[in-house]
Design a protein that fits this description.
single chain, Udp-n-acetylmuramoylalanyl-d-glutamate--2,6- Diaminopimelate Ligase, Chain: A, domain 1, UDP-N-acetylmuramoyl-L-alanine:D-glutamate ligase, Protein-Tyrosine Phosphatase, Chain A, 6-stranded parallel sheet, 16 helices, 21 strands, about 35% helix
Amino acid sequence: MIKRTLKQIAEMLDVECPRFQDTEIHGVTIDSRKAGEGQLFVPFAGEHTDGHIHVEQAIADGAGAALWKKDRPNPPEHLPILLVEDPLEALQKLAESYLQQTNAKVVGITGSNGKTTTKDMTASLLAQKYKVHKTAGNYNNHLGLPLTILDMEEDTEIAVLEMGMSSKGEIELLSRLAKPSVAIITNIGESHLLDLGSREAIAEAKMEITTGLREDGVLIYHGDEPLLHDKLADSKWNVLSFGRSDQNDIYPLKIDAATDHTVFTSNLYPEPMTLPILGNHNVLNALAAIMAARQFGIEPDEVKKGLADLKVTNMRMEMVEGKQGEKIINDAYNASPTAMRAAIDLVCALKGFKHKILVLGDMLELGPEEVQFHKMIGESIQHEAIDQLFTYGELGAYIAEGATDNLGSENVFIFQDKEALIEELKKHVSANDLVLVKASRGMKLEDVVLALKA
């Protein structure tokens, strides 16, 4: 983590430090309740509270110093504080300055789906040769990314940074802050249609990752996506593609899905590689990570080991066992039509199970066509591969509506009450069944997984 004197922090922020210049700062926090020994506390003014009122208590609890917004009255001048125009901009500027001082190279990753898994894969591959720091969880926005950087050890060689967005322009800000040497766009899906209105606008927003990409940088993108392919036809960067088509720079030759891992070969690596997670879409994420690792000289044997050693963030295609001996794919972290179809395709492809059950909930932030997206998911479910469907939520009911003709009404269960869903589901699962649990994060369907495991 960042370790500087308050005077050095002030110099990085280009502000004055009249007192407490030798105070040592170890790390940064934006939560006064979690202020650790020597940390710099950055207060924000929100709708319901103002962090400035907690500055004195944070320092009393061990924080080394704090920032203070200049137009906020009565700064506690007897304490180690730095006056800044805007605490958020100061946090971002401090992260940018610290990153430059460490000389760490950056791999930036964005996309509608697969960002976090691709981040985990890329970090695992690069860690075979370098000291790597990566985004924790989904700390990928205008607050999380600078905090991730400031938590990085000074001797880090490569930072693997996930870049998410809630609106247009946010990825541009993150890219300009981090200045990646390598950038990855995993795909263009339907997430954020509510905010951006079209897949074309989503593609434009994801392309913002190139705004901070270094002149000698490498851009790795999903080559099967026309919205990206067309935009990069005359790119000034070194552009590399991954995807299913053999027109890409790297593509899979063969994919074999087992119950708890995936084995694949590619045109660049004909020797089988093993992923300890499921899903053909995760093979594509792995190909993107491999292309990034190749830019830093990671050798084939290191690629193989890095993939085999992979540890992914929880609730992403995570296979767990239920109390009745059923297998559960916990993919409850997030959902979009693209990701939902990929997860269902995986369930259909897996062999050796007695029954296959889908537990699907609302996919959020899809905009005016959200009902149609949910119906289309339901219509795509085939009775030859899936035995039963349980849905949760108001939009989930439209998945059920779309699936009823194929599955039959007796095999479709619709719920608005999660506890009622769990109780009914327990009556249907048994040993050697496969259950997929997937919905947007706001639906908290991990509760279903926990109940089956209990």
